[in-house]
């Protein structure tokens, strides 16, 4: 992400050269890539120029080899030549002082190439938000270890790590925190010395082992402790000292990723100066009958297919918040407004696009 305007310091490509004529001209030299011809081209003379060669002073057009007659040191060029033909004029791509890229642009392949072409060895860019990521729960075990009775593999860490990186964050993994208030507090306080943002998963429902909300309340201000969203009802958001943010995501794998998409990713993008915070949305045609939840907006996971100029959504199957298969390979989250009626097959709904088919 670029932090300030990039301004062209020199014309691109570099100054060029041409031959004048309609007659027979004396060939007086050559300009090749990296080996310019250093004398002016006087009337009645011309030089050979190769691709990438600099146009010498006096010359104002280039004629193709196939359009000339060449005999030893004399070249006969056709009539009707125009000044400026067949070469890239200085500033044809960019003029000095022209704004090349506005601040806030994402630096991709073309943008980085452009900066290098302008000779800029260093760019001033926005810092990535530093995020500390913590999974909580006594039942969690490290991936690769076989879970014992009542245990479950910590999959959220890896899902959220990928989601955080895609959103531009620099991630510090805190591993698994126990369901024990003091131990959690120590982990979190220590991590917040470095991090701009804390992201946790698990421990936000209302129950004896749900310790994240009281912890965040003791460290700052909890603004959201519950949202009318399915999946993701117990999503928690707090602001902490030094403008730090904390997101307590639900433990259920799909709930944590959906609330990440809806709330965390836009916040991280805002911190990086993006103006487009949400994923793009498009209207799509429901290819199935969607039931609604009375009091909560539902984000259902779908695949999309193009049918006659429209995008048609198919459900990824059971929408259980523990079923990651409902999100794996999904192209979009379709937004089903709360209510009792649901949305019939063929309705147009808003879809948050994750990937187009
Ligand atoms: P909690 O919000 O802590 O009550 O967790 C809700 C559900 O999500 C429980 O079934 C947890 O076992 C599960 N869960 C919590 N954390 C993780 C995690 N890191 N990876 C996978 N599942 C998790
Ligand atoms: Mg838990």
Top keywords for this entry?
about 350 residues, five-stranded mixed barrel, elongated, binds adenosine monophosphate, binds magnesium ion
Description:
The chain is built from 5 helices and 20 strands. It is of the alpha/beta class and 357 residues long. α2 (156-166) runs parallel beside α5. β4 (69-71) and β5 (74-76) form a beta hairpin. The chain is elongated and about 95 Å long. It has helices spanning 109-117, 156-166, 181-192, 212-219, 253-271; strands at residues 6-7, 24-31, 45-49, 69-71, 74-76, 99-101, 130-136, 140-141, 152-153, 170-177, 197-201, 220-224, 229-230, 236-240, 244-249, 281-286, 297-307, 310-315, 332-336, 348-353. It binds adenosine monophosphate (AMP) and magnesium ion. Magnesium ion is lined by residues 136-137, 202-203, 209, 251.
What is the count of DSSP helices, taking H or I runs of 4+ residues? 5
What fraction strand? 25-35%
Number of strands: 20
From the spread of the alpha carbons, the general shape counts as elongated
Q: Name every ligand kind in the structure.
A: adenosine monophosphate, magnesium ion
Distance between the termini: 27 Å
Structural class: alpha/beta
Q: Numbering strands along the chain, what is their spatial order in the largest sheet? A: 10-7-11-15-14-12
Give the biggest beta sheet: 6 strands, mixed
Name the helicity range: 10-25%
State the assembly state of the protein chains: single chain
Mean pLDDT: 90
Supply Rg.
31 Å
Low-confidence stretches: 10-17
Order of helices and strands: EEEEEEHEEEHEHEHEEEEHEEEEE
